[in-house]
Amino acid sequence: MWNKPWTMKEGFIIGGGLIVAGLLLQLSVGPVVWDAFAWTANGFVLSVFFVMLTTMVYLRKKVYAFQWMSTNQAAIPAMAYAVVLTIIMGLTRQQVNGTWFNNMLSFWPFVLTYVYLTVILGLTIHRRFRAIFRGQGSMKRDIPFMLNHLGLFIALLTATLGSADMQRVKMICGVGQPEWRAMEQNGAIKEMPIAIELKKFIMETYEGGKPKRYASEIQILTKSGKNIETTVEVNKPYEVDGWKIYQYGYDTQMGAKSQVSILELVADPWLPFVYAGFYMMLAGAAVMTLIVLWRRFRTASRKALGWYLFFAACAAMFAYFFFDSYNTKTLVPALQSPWFAPHVFVYIFAYTLLGIAVVIAWWKRVDDLVYVSFAFLTFGMLFGALWAKEAWGHYWSWDPKETWAAITWIAYLVYIHYRRLPQQRNRVAFWMLIGSFVLLQMCWWGINYLPSAQGSSVHTYSTKE
């Protein structure tokens, strides 16, 4: 051990050391205080982070650890620790002021593990850039690699550092009563740069009284003198002067006769950077899929792959039409979105392909099938993030369903990186595939039975009553 070249053993020791260091920090200074990273502190941290990465790149020939951190042998243990810690998060109910495992976002071992992953990601991107400039790259590998890795790097970095600058407040508006005060998440009252008056609350119901649609006709007055009349409803927010206004709730006792509407106002200055990362990842997933399909359909096994894709597409189409048939019948307002059908389609397509991969992995390699499936997992996860932003005001809030989606995604990422090692065992890869598929089942339907999701997840719906 510790003889060059380092292997995954050293990676697991380093990752374990980070967890121990995180525990010591947790005991000595308490949980991470994210509010301390508001602008300009987060800008300073971002600058320091890039200086650190640049220094590590410059010293990579003198410090072997920096060179090693851009390899799969470093990435796989780091991702494995991330999966384990995120599973703990997915099994425990998360609370803002909770204890260690009940507030994982402020738990130092969790934070340090993901920071370490981001450092590895940055060094890996630099190594590939260096290879491209030296003419050692390949367009087929480099384009999807750079889009996926650079997109993830940008999204992780800006979403984390920008979280302290995001403002989310709730405003209770009454009919004929202009309101300019809102309540922050900690209960403090904040004067807003805009005033909102509720003109009319609208509710449509299914037979039996279940809400089908609710919306608010509002008038907005800004400091710049704008006087805007518009309607906001679930999945259809309105944006003005950097604030997005969402339909959040109403007086449930009054129902359709409610004289008040609860609106959520969100300002997220880092959102364009996060979205840039998302769109790069989506483009990378699309390019990766096209390259794999083009390569496989030129081989003798194209007929089998064609049948796999056809079967997965049939399953996804069934889910599409089955769920879409409820769109005008029994779906709650949050599910009545243009994102609903594609989100369901790509996820079911990916789940079916991954199920096929587990079955046929008994007697053949299924790497290309996993690559395509992983690309569609990426589509589904990011489609869901974009949808969540339009429905609830945040693209990622570590809701239990989102947490298990991240667990599944990283688990398959571990498998993909393991298969790229020069020395790897098929039996180990097979069991990694089995384990990842078990985690997928938890994400798909097992989440409905977890105590951590009961009453706290916005993804637990009753579509029929």
- Write down how many β-strands occur, each being a DSSP E stretch of 2 or more residues: 8
User: Strands across the major sheet, in which order?
Assistant: 1-8-7-6
Question: How can the largest sheet be summarized?
Answer: 4 strands, antiparallel
How much is the average pLDDT?
91
Describe, in plain words, how this protein is organized in 3D:
The chain is of the alpha+beta class. It is built from twelve helices and eight strands. The strands form two sheets. Strands 1-8-7-6 form a four-stranded antiparallel beta sheet, covered by helices on one side. The chain has a four-stranded antiparallel beta sheet with strand order 2-3-4-5, with no helix packed on it. A hairpin with a 5-residue loop joins strand 2 and strand 3. The chain is globular. The model has no long low-confidence stretch (mean pLDDT 91).
